[in-house]
Specification:
alpha/beta; Rossmann fold; Syntaxin Binding Protein 1, Chain A, domain 2; 4 domains; seven-stranded mixed sheet; 24 helices; 16 strands; 48% helix; globular
Length: 611
């Protein structure tokens, strides 16, 4: 299967609701869908109500509410749950006292032998038609972007196990057995990669990973990254549509609350959003104007005056289009509200000036003194922008031009109520003081070039994507000042996509490699050091991924040639915007008190001994 998450979604929808085997009793009869709290978000983000209804699903119930279910023995039941102890216990209770005629069980991730035995013993009424393992234990956001929900994993003794299980589920759904590469300076990734390797090798004994790479000449790569090695990208103001919606309004499982209404963003069913999601602000407004003009042209022909002068046959054709026009007008109103809110936020926060200054700082577009002068103008003006934007500018400046004396002056200005309202909180002040030291070790150890370049490796001007595929490098540079910054991910991927046979690119020298047994058997023991051009890369960022990194992935794939086609998808344990990332940073700083830091060092020493 190609690295297209939309195809995964379609595959599992058909498996759940449109089975090839039409002989079963549930094939074409009314059904109840029984889900748990883990699969409910997957259903809601992947499938629409009309899709479910068109496949005879007339009712959706929670298995946690098993005791409150009404008995409807004339209905068949599809059970779609995560095979955790809690959900299996609910299922066992339901089978002991069934409310429906028969049951098809779809368990989302691998099931243990003991769990299967418990289910079989509970089926005393013989109502189970079949039991199927499926593998979509993650959320599909875009066709190239996924998210893993780890909200319940923190309660576990070893949350890396659950994280590993979900990533292995992703691999199985994509039918890939990869070489695992991870950033060596991250203890979290070292533990996670070891769990994934163990998981793959263990499940290989169950034949789950047999023949998954049979159509691949080169082993796919699972690239594990730590957000702490690039704390900059989530702080940069985005200027493309989907990213701006998340930054200014917030997207939660593809749902957005705007103008007092809840709207859904789904590129599968929204043609305008699919075509506009990666467009910059200027191109976006132009495209929306054309979208509105097309609507006006189409609806003009159906005006009352035109309807009066048409024959019955043409009138019938026009009337059948009215529902389509209504849907189109609703979609225009949805995007008009979104664009209006984005425009409102850009103006209110003075982002034309602030966004440009962010790019100037991070990409080195002006000299140190010029940048400092522009930053002071913002800090000295109480009406220049919000407190949060001022903090982000100082954070970017502090890691680009580290000068303790300057930083102290900036913090003093930020804490002056006549210049900044509201003034920074305790956590924000601590972050400003310690941002450089908190992340400098991660940044420098992740990059392995000369000492002068270690810190600045994460600051790079926009790179022409075509140069990654050995194409003509004479294409014009992007002159849009707001799109100069490119995430560090671009540099890492360039080293993997275009490997050099006689040396390891500097950008990927900080990566360690683990090779599952199945991959060694198929590609040989030298697969870890192979210089063959990789075709498939699955990227996972622990600590969160951004929509801008998803856009980068999209553009890299679009820029690859047919002869050297690259397939990429990306995901993380959350989808970040600057607010979410800053809150994470505040938590990191608050945890770094002397007592906590000492305790963490002890834990890390113990972990090193274990690993």
């Amino acid at each position: 299967m190609t690295l297209n998450l939309s195809k995964v979604k379609e595959f599992y929808f058909n498996k759940l609701f449109s089975p090839k085997d039409k002989s079963t009793a549930t094939a074409s009869s009314p059904k109840v869908l029984l889900v748990d709290k883990y699969t409910t978000p997957i259903i809601s983000i992947c499938f629409t109500q009309s899709q479910l209804l068109s496949n005879d699903v007339i009712l959706v119930e929670l298995i946690e509410d098993q005791e409150q279910l009404s008995t409807m023995r004339h209905l068949n039941c599809i059970v779609y749950i995560h095979p955790c102890a809690q959900s299996i216990n609910h299922l066992v209770r339901e089978l002991h006292s069934p409310h429906f005629q028969n049951y098809q069980l779809f368990l989302n991730n691998t099931v243990s032998k003991n769990q299967l035995e418990s289910i079989a013993e509970a089926d005393e009424f013989e109502v189970i038609e079949k039991v199927v393992e499926i593998f979509q234990d993650y959320l599909i956001v875009n066709e190239n972007l996924f998210s893993i929900d780890l909200s319940d994993s923190v309660k576990q003794v070893n949350p890396a196990i659950e994280e590993s299980n979900k990533l292995v589920s992703l691999l199985l759904s994509l039918k890939k057995t990869p070489v695992i590469k991870y950033e060596s300076n991250s203890l979290d990734l070292k533990r996670l990669s070891s769990e994934i390797l163990y998981n793959i090798n263990t499940n290989s004994n169950n034949n789950l990973f047999d023949d998954l790479n049979k159509n691949s000449d080169v082993a796919p790569i699972l690239l594990l990254l730590d957000r702490k090695n690039d704390p900059i990208t989530p702080l940069i103001a985005p200027w493309t549509y989907q990213s701006m919606i998340h930054e200014f309004i917030h997207i939660n499982k593809n749902i957005v609350d705007v103008s007092g209404e809840t709207v859904i963003l789904d590129s599968q069913f929204d043609k305008f959003f699919k075509e506009a999601m990666y467009l910059n602000y200027g191109d976006l407004t132009e495209k929306f104007q054309k979208y509105v003009e097309e609507y006006k042209t189409q609806t003009k022909s159906t005006s009352l005056d035109n309807l009066q002068n048409t024959n019955l046959s043409d009138l019938k054709k026009m009337l059948t289009k009215f529902p389509e026009f209504k849907k189109l007008s609703s979609n225009i109103l949805k995007h008009l509200n979104l664009l209006s809110e984005i425009d409102k936020q850009i103006s209110a926060q003075n982002l034309w000036e602030i966004g440009e200054l962010q790019q100037v700082i991070i990409c080195g577009l002006e000299n140190h003194q010029a940048v400092k002068t522009r930053l002071l103008e913002v800090l000295d003006n109480p009406h220049s922008t919000t407190t949060i934007n001022k903090i982000k500018l100082v954070l970017l400046y502090s890691i680009r031009f580290h000068n303790p004396s300057e930083l102290s002056d900036f913090i003093t200005k930020l804490n002056d109520p006549s210049l900044t309202n509201p003034t920074p909180t305790y956590s924000q002040n601590e972050l400003l003081k310690r941002f450089k030291t908190l992340f400098n070790s991660n940044i420098t150890s992740a990059a392995t070039s000369s000492s002068d370049n270690q810190l600045t490796n994460i600051f790079n001007k926009k790179i022409n994507f075509k140069t990654l595929f050995n194409r003509d490098n004479s294409a014009q540079h992007n002159d849009n000042v707001y799109l100069q910054y490119t995430p560090r991910l671009n540099e890492l991927l360039s080293g993997l996509i275009n490997p050099v046979s006689d040396s390891i690119p500097a950008s990927i020298q900080g990566l360690s490699t683990l090779v599952p047994d199945k991959v060694k058997q198929q590609y040989g023991n030298s697969v870890a050091t192979s210089s063959a051009q990789v075709q498939d890369i699955i990227i996972y960022i622990k600590g969160g991924v951004t929509y801008e990194e998803s856009r980068l992935i999209y553009e890299l794939c679009e820029s690859s040639t047919t002869s050297s086609k690259i397939n990429l998808i990306i995901g993380g344990d959350k989808v970040l915007n600057s607010d979410i990332w800053l809150n994470n940073l505040y938590d990191m700083v608050n945890e770094e008190s002397p007592a906590v830091a000492s305790e963490r060092i002890d834990r890390q020493s113990q972990l090193r001994e274990i690993l």
